[in-house]
Design goal:
The complex is a heterodimer of chains A (161) and B (107).
Chain A (H helix, E strand, L loop, with lengths): L2 H8 L3 H11 L3 H25 L8 H29 L1 H7 L5 H5 L2 H12 L4 H8 L3 H24 L1
Chain B lengths: L1 H13 L2 H6 L4 H13 L4 H16 L8 H18 L7 H13 L2
Classes of the chains: A mainly alpha (161), B mainly alpha (107).
Chain lengths: 161, 107
């Protein structure tokens, strides 16, 4: 696959990659940097495989969608690893300058936010989340359960007050 | 007695609703759950309720949209990364010319 083909494949994903990054780090510049770092890490690691891929012209619409999803998941794998680490490092800074909206969500641990977003925003299955985050199945399910409980519980308490 | 048994079965499947919607049930549990729903259409309202809860849950999560400036800057950064890091090592003069040409037209 040529470089311009790969860029063309990835272009429609920019928005989603950024959204995922802001889930982990609620800061415009940091989120942008996270997208670039994840993409760079992916490109360095998978360069040969990408270049050996089929030309975009020879792919059917369905194949293009499959390829796009495949690359999206690949980049998310790096983003989850780098993002969780970076989010923990920036935790104090985020507490000071965190967004006023979605306080409860950003109060959750980075791994919980990651799993919640992959499942409910990006509609990945539990198996796919296991693959992207390299967490064991029980941990993915536990984080989904905890996140759901904490978000809804906090909202219900807010309503009661 | 029969009523009690029905309640036990109901609560057993109620506990599985979230797992079903999350896609975390095993294939065996999933088939069992779907078979139960087919034979108990009234159960669908409970599934709908949980589905609504999950839709609401999504509204408690951020869905940040990029500003035009961020979109432009991110796009150009991504393009730069792809064109710099996916460079094929030129094997001969023709490859060198091809690479340079590709770089030039991608500017």
């Amino acid at each position: 696959m040529k470089r311009k083909d790969f860029y063309q494949l990835l272009h429609p994903l920019t928005d989603k990659l950024y959204r995922m990054a802001t889930t982990l780090i609620p800061d415009d510049l940091q989120a942008e940097q996270l997208v670039i770092d994840s993409l760079n890490a992916y490109l360095i690691k998978e360069k040969n495989k990408i270049l050996a891929g089929r030309e975009l012209d020879s792919l059917s619409k369905k194949d293009i969608q499959l390829q796009r999803r495949f690359y999206f998941k690949g980049i998310l794998r790096y983003m989850s690893e780098i993002g969780v680490r970076r989010s923990s490092q920036l935790a104090d800074q985020m507490k000071l300058a965190g967004p006023s909206n979605f306080k409860t969500f950003y109060g959750l641990g980075p791994k919980v936010r990651l799993v919640m977003s992959l499942r409910y925003d990006f509609q990945f299955t539990v198996e796919e989340i296991e693959d992207i985050t390299t967490m064991p199945r029980y941990e993915v399910i536990e984080k989904l359960h905890n996140g759901r409980f904490l978000l809804l519980n906090d909202f219900n308490q807010g309503v009661q007050l | 007695m029969i009523e009690t048994n029905k309640n036990i079965v109901d609560s057993k499947f109620q506990k599985k609703i979230l797992g079903y919607l999350d896609g975390s049930l095993s294939s065996e549990d999933k088939s069992e759950f779907e078979a139960y729903v087919r034979t108990h259409p009234e159960f669908e309202t409970q599934i709908q309720k949980k589905e609504d809860e999950l839709t609401f849950l999504k509204s408690l999560m951020p869905a940040t949209l990029m500003t035009k400036e961020t979109a432009e800057s991110l796009d150009s950064e991504m393009k730069l990364s792809i064109f710099n890091l996916l460079k094929e090592e030129p094997r001969n003069f023709i490859d060198k010319v091809k690479n340079s040409w590709e770089e030039w037209i991608s500017r």
